[in-house]
Design brief:
122 residues, mainly alpha, single chain
Length: 122
Amino acid sequence: MHLTYLAIGLCAGVLSGLFGIGGGVLIVPALMLVAKMSPIEAIATSLGSLLLPVGALGAYEYYKNGHVNVIASLLVALGLLVGAYFGARWAQTLSPVQMKRAFALFLVIVAARMWFTAGRAG
């Protein structure tokens, strides 16, 4: 499972570098769909991975209530660090039209996946 968390962070990092997105758009759905976390654990773990400085207070509140998976948060953060670099490099090679279309396609795929798995446990 550790490699799954690292891969989620890496993908989030690449997409963050490409499109400026991460937590709510990619990490939370990925933790729910791929790592099979509950929505509250996914949100808390995402905040934990984005801890400094963005999610510190929110992550602490979730942590106090036992919802943050600390190991997953650290591994996602490591993936974000590396992935953001490669995503930013990739973005430099794309035209504005390619960027806009790629981002729109990504959002449709994530939305469809969330919609069709909404009734499933986890």
